Amino acid sequence: MNSKNSRAKDTSELAPTLARRLVELRERKNLTVKDLAQESRFTKERIEDLESGLETWLSSTDRQLLARALAVDPVIIQEVEARPRLEPSDDPERYNAILADLSDSILKGVKESECPQCGNTLRCRVQVGLDIDGNQVHFAKAFCQKCPFVLT
Ligand SMILES: [Zn+2]
Fold it and tell me: For residues 54 and 69, is the Cβ–Cβ distance under 8 A?
């Protein structure tokens, strides 16, 4: 959990969980739950769920809305989100579809993506190899920075 990136300085004083961090950020702006709900266009109940730890992660659209309402970089919220891990055995079809999508975007030149298992930064690259007939083939590879997820 000790992220030593350039943003560490700004967030080192903030709570390490999404629930507590949201409360802190909201109080720092002197907003009530109701104020924040209005600013972010979330329901008051949803803010309460987030602040009590019932909801542990946000979609990127929701994260942006909330970050804007709290006047912080969305990364400040994202770095303490706890995404439920998507296990291949939970829903193999969906899992494979996600991997196919990921593979596709990597082959189209995406260098960084979001880890399907934990939501953290995924480093991506294209590896060039040869198939049995000697034709050049491109493989998508990805490694998560935080969890054991790999795409090979
Ligand atoms: Zn991951």
Answer: no
